[in-house]
Amino acid sequence: MKILICTFLFLLNISNKNNTHDAISATFNVIKKGHVLMLEIDFDEENFIKFGESSSLRVSKEDFRNYLYKTTNWEIDGEILNPKVLTLKSTEQHTRVICFLSKKAKNIKSIKVKNEFLLNIDSHSNIIKLDINDTFKDFRLHKDRREIVVNY
Predict the structure, then answer these.
(1) Cα distances (Å, whole numbers) of residue 116 to 30, 42, 124, 125
(2) Does the domain made of 24-151 have the CATH classification 2.40.128?
(3) SS3 for 10?
(4) Sign (positive/negative) of CA torsion 146, 92, 89, 67?
(5) Which residue in 26, 43, 51, 92 has a CA-CA distance of 20 to 30 Å to 120?
(6) pLDDT per residue over 84-132, tens digit each?
């Protein structure tokens, strides 16, 4: 009987491994590194390949950059910014991208972010984390909330 119960629990555990994500989200961290602002992005590679207009089975810098420019807008103190993709690294199911965002890292008065990254996926959220002017703030963007304006 013990063997039967152990076998059942083992099979139940295997069948649940494919559904490892409780929340479908991507995170966008704006952080100060030295004298510049960087943007670190973490997302599910499988979702990007299925829904992010990828031209291959792996995320490429070019595909990611094009999709990022199409689905996000970044503005600091009235200046429109285009993040420069520096590195892209995929591990297992997730991908992390490091981007240069701005030379301006001090005395920021406002930041405006519009983000529709992978919002074509049901119940997907984008978490925007801002570590600016020695203040940390985070926001959840989703299908019904696609843009934020933060004043400092």
Answers:
(1) 17, 15, 10, 9
(2) no
(3) helix
(4) negative
(5) 92
(6) 999 999 887 889 999 999 998 889 999 999 999 999 998 999 999 999 9
Residue 32 host element (H or E): strand 25-33
Count CB-CB contacts under 10 A for residue 76.
20
Look up residue 9 and give its two tokens.
């629990």
Domain ranges of the chain: 24-151
Q: What is the 3-state secondary structure (H, E, C) of 62-126?
A: HHHHHHHHHHEEEEECCEEECCEEEEEEEECCEEEEEEEEECCCCCCCEEEEEECCCCCCCCCEE
Confidence band (pLDDT; 50, 70, 90) for 77? very high
Among 68, 78, 71, residue whose Cα is nearest residue 40: 68
- pTM (global) more than 0.85: no
Residue 45's identity, in one-letter code, is E
